[in-house]
Design goal:
The complex is a heterodimer of chains A (281) and B (274). Chain A is of the alpha+beta class. Chain A has six helices and eleven strands. The radius of gyration of chain A is 20 Å and the shape is globular. Chain B is α+β, with helices and mostly antiparallel strands. Chain B has one domain: Aminohydrolase, N-terminal nucleophile (Ntn) domain (Glutamine Phosphoribosylpyrophosphate, subunit 1, domain 1). Chain B is 35% helix and 25% strand. Chain B contains eight helices and 13 strands. In chain B, a hairpin with a 5-residue loop joins strand 9 and strand 10. Classes of the chains: A alpha+beta (281), B alpha+beta (274). The interface between A and B is large, with 40 and 41 residues.
């Protein structure tokens, strides 16, 4: 007997793919992205120090993701390539989150409909503006749909209750300390509502910020004593220091161990003038 | 499949593997690389040339300085061009040769280093950076043979050895580590002679800046393509220092006082005999 090709309606096909992607994403821990008075903060529950869920894309743009690591890592690298190529062939100020979000949306959409399996990822592309009004947060889902979010996003396994709580409790102009405390509290909530809440400690968290007030590259990870101080309600620290760590080496992490005098600002011929001709993008 | 689906990221963006920006651009849009642009054979171009760069080590770091002149034949094409560039937090490149292509190479090199940092999450080693620059010069050999030569000098602070290091290049991409001090460009002969007499081990940063500025003065004294201190326009050499605190340009006012001291010391003593 020859096998008959059997008919699957497009609705059913898309639904199956969406269910598959959603299941994959729901297995992972959540990530919260939220605005604060000095920029945009990213908080992920992630015990790994090297496999990041949050990363730098460009001077004022960062990337956060949940889902399958190899798939969103691939998208992250593509985003860095997109931004660096654009900045190289135009100008640094011409690299914007909106263009990148569109490119991601097209890519995710094409993969969702044409490849044998959709990407099991959900990502956020955020750009920090010169003022809070200029902040942009885009959320992209596995099927390529893109949403322009105001103020906060939660994604991953137990995102819905977190999103609802943020709706009630997030306000504009939170300090970094308050924003982190809120995010960490919500990430530790039991999603079913019946279990005990967990108290997440600094070493279970991956935290980063896009700091509005830094010249040029604004992305910094926060770790070590500085993160503990920011999370502790008793400590008065409520924002990141204006300069990087004093230790020689790569200055992408702020630990608060010791703070250097004046940060250098490579690749510009002369020190950057904040709010200079660098137009808002 | 890529062309038909609107603005989807092309496959080169999603290809796994390389953390090199140059390799990615070479695969995706080779026309953006200077070395991939063919020139008609047998022509030579008259394009602006950058001139003299000097590099001086001191205890715990290295200083790089360049004059500000670009020449086109006997014409001064530009009198305030910057030819010393910071390429990342611990390195700098000074350029001599065809200015247009050299500046393009430096921009590419700057993106290359930052791209690697973002993809790998770590700084490239100093030798790694020097070798990346060597391969860029090497790929420019075709242009060099038609007269568009680029001869940079690379200096950086080595975080592992805790000292400032200097690398020089030839047009074929040969990369050589230099010790103590070095100079490239049309006035380099005179600058090297000057530094041989003024440099000594154990200089501090201010001492190294003064040795570098004096070497540029000597280069400008005998080489018409090197710009001397332009007191009336207040155009001073570009001076960058690299040490454990990172790379930074010296503020103009600081350079001005060093230049003025050198000029004053040469008043009535043009050779700087001491």
């Amino acid at each position: 007997m020859t096998s008959m090709p059997f008919y699957v309606s497009p609705e059913q096909l898309m639904k199956d793919r969406a269910d598959f992607a959603r299941k994959g994403i729901a297995r992972g821990r959540s990530v919260v992205v939220l605005g604060y008075d000095g920029g945009i903060a990213f908080v992920a529950e992630n015990p790994s120090r090297s496999l990041h869920k949050v990363s730098e894309i460009y001077d004022r743009i960062a990337f956060a993701a949940v889902g399958k690591y190899n798939e969103f890592e691939n998208l992250r690298v593509a985003g860095v390539r997109y931004a660096d190529l654009r900045g190289y062939s135009y100008d640094r100020s011409d690299v914007a989150a909106r263009g990148l979000a569109n490119a991601y949306a097209q890519t995710l959409g094409t993969v969702f409909t044409q490849e044998s399996k959709p990407y099991e990822v959900e990502i956020v592309v955020a750009e920090v503006g010169r003022t809070p009004d200029g902040d942009q947060i885009y959320r992209l889902t596995y099927d390529g749909s893109v949403a322009d979010e105001h103020g906060f996003v939660a994604m991953g396994g137990a995102a819905e209750p977190i999103e609802e709580a943020l709706q009630e409790r997030w306000v504009e102009g939170l300090s970094l300390g308050d924003a982190l405390a809120l995010a960490v509290e919500l990430l530790g909530k039991d999603p079913t509502g019946n279990g005990a809440d967990r108290q997440l400690s600094a070493d279970q968290l991956e935290v980063a910020v896009l700091d509005r007030n830094r010249p040029r590259r604004t992305f910094r990870r926060i770790a070590g004593p500085l993160l503990e101080r920011l999370l502790s309600p008793a400590d008065p620290t409520s924002d990141v220091p204006a300069t990087d760590d004093d230790s020689p080496g790569h200055h992408d992490v702020l630990t608060g161990d010791s703070v250097r005098d004046a940060s250098t600002n490579p690749e510009t011929q002369r020190p950057d003038v904040l709010d200079g001709d660098d137009s808002e993008s | 499949m890529t062309g038909s689906s609107g603005r989807r990221l092309p496959d080169a963006f999603l290809a796994p593997g390389s953390s090199s920006f140059t390799e990615f651009v070479g695969a995706h849009d080779p026309g953006l690389l200077p070395s991939r642009r063919p020139l008609p054979p047998g022509t030579t171009l008259d394009a602006p040339h950058g001139t003299t760069i000097v590099t001086v080590t001191y205890a715990g770091g290295v200083v790089m300085a360049g004059d500000r002149r670009a020449t086109m034949g006997s014409l001064i094409a530009n009198r305030d061009m910057e030819k010393v560039f910071l390429t990342d937090e611990y390195s700098a490149v000074g350029i001599a040769g065809t200015a247009g292509i050299a500046i393009e190479l430096v921009r590419l090199f700057q993106v290359e280093l930052e791209h690697y940092e973002k993809i790998e999450g770590a700084l490239m080693s100093l030798e790694g950076k020097a070798n990346r620059l060597a391969s860029m010069i090497r790929s420019n050999l075709g242009l060099a043979m038609q007269g568009l030569t680029v001869v940079p000098m690379f200096a950086g602070y080595d975080l592992e050895a805790n000292l400032g290091r200097i690398f020089s290049y030839d047009v074929t991409g040969g990369c050589y580590e230099e010790h103590d001090h070095h100079s490239v460009g049309s006035g380099s002969l005179f600058a090297r002679g000057s530094m041989k007499k003024t440099w000594h081990a154990g200089l501090d940063r201010a001492g190294a800046v003064s040795v570098a500025v004096e070497a540029l003065y000597d280069a400008a004294d005998d080489d018409s393509a090197t710009g001397g201190p332009d007191v009336s326009r207040r155009i001073w050499p570009t001076v960058a220092s690299l040490d454990v605190d990172g790379a930074a340009f010296l503020p103009d006012d600081d350079v001005a006082s060093v230049v003025e001291a050198v000029v004053a010391a040469r008043n009535g003593n043009p050779g700087g005999a001491r």
